[in-house]
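Async update (no meeting this week)

Hi team, since we skipped the sync, here's where things stand on the single-chain job. The sequence we agreed to prioritize is pasted below, unchanged from the tracker. I ran it this morning and attached the output directly underneath so nobody has to dig for it. Comments welcome in thread, and please keep replies under the output.
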Amino acid sequence: MSMWERRLGVWGTILRSTAGIAIVLLVTAVARMGLVVNATTVGFAFLIVVLGLATAWGLHEAVAASLVAVLCFNFFFLPPLGRFTIADPENWVALCAFLATALVASHLSNRAKMQAVEARERQQETERLYSFSRSILLTDTAQPVGQQAARFIAQAFDCPAVALYDAAEGEVYRGGAGDLPTIDDRLKQVALDGVRSSDASRLLMVLPITLGGRPIGSVAMLGLSCSDGAMEALVNLVAIALERARSAEIASKAEAARQSEEFKSTLLDAIAHEFKTPLTSIKAASTSILSEPDRVAPDVREFTEIIDEETDRLTLLVNEAVRMSQIEAGKVLVEKQAQHVPSFLAHVLSTFQSRLEGRAATVEAADDLPAVLFDPDLIALAVRQLIDNALKYSPPESPLRLTAAVVDGAMEIRVIDQGKGIPEKEREKVFQVYYRRNTSKGTVPGTGLGLHIAREILKAHGGSLHIEGASGAGAEFCLRLPLEGVRI
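Output:
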């Protein structure tokens, strides 16, 4: 409340108190003119006047009137008349009883009046909060929720000016006919500190908007006077509206991403189908030529072997691209089969013979290892991703090792290279979608999907994939597959 409004309130109380005293004097004058001669009747008349003033105006006016009424009652109606003294002790009792009754009755009447006023204010606050909540539920997702919320607050609570800061977007939205031109920095500070701020001289409140104890914004309201409970309910509704909009946006993006992955998977399936027809024809032709070695010249046979080899490699790449797309889209189906791990790893490594270029690549695994149930195509894809990663990030002359052993009730397959290794702080990041290390961007080909897909394949089997070994001493990828349900 402003100083001017407080002064108006004080002067209003003085004027009403003066009017109440005038009414008491009027009743006294009427009684003295002989219309009322009984002191008891005069006392009841004074009491009715005091109660009426308490009901109509308030406690201060009633107290002023009751004090004047006591003086008039004593001076004009209790003997000795015309003096502020009382001869009979019974009249003292009557006077004190009148004063006490007037004050208590005035207080109770004023209290009932204040409670009625508060009840009406609470009802209005409830109605405004209900109107605001209905508006929040009908927000248009095509427009910023913060802008709509600021406008709804101004409309529902009759605020001249509202400013709402959305910390996630870093934007300040305004509502109402007025403006708060210098409020932006204060809004951001309140959102950062999480502590409300107020300016009593302007009836300005700046409240933090929190969700789960975490500040997500703030709101400034000019000329809004309501209870703390209503304020708290208001900012909670705004917080719910902002979070609801954020959740809807995330869900929309997730759905768009899912549809995109499904479309990509469908497209790759179609492309793979188109590739397979010419690849099958090329494979059939090369196989036919190689089946009759005596009918072709040595150089032609050598080129045909290269064509046959690269056709197998291209077919494998096409199949892997389709499987990777299916895994990203969540369409992968795990078909487990019992596998002899050493033979399986040797077969996977053999598909890289053309890329080894003299590099020493070995499989180190005991031949009597137990068979393990897993999907051979999917685990082969995961292992190939790790081998491909090792070939890219280690020197061409360095050795590559694949090991397998039973450790702590699980089959551990390790792919070990002699490259620069992966720092500790990046060992989890490399499994994120599309993550590429700064040292490899632009120098090493790749999309940042291989390691992520390899880990997802292991998770689908109930296993895990992580990085071990000392930093700077090569990369050591460890695949763990559970041994439950194995066949020896």
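Quick observations from my side:
The longest strand covers residues 214-222.
The mean pLDDT is 79.
Reply here if anything looks off.
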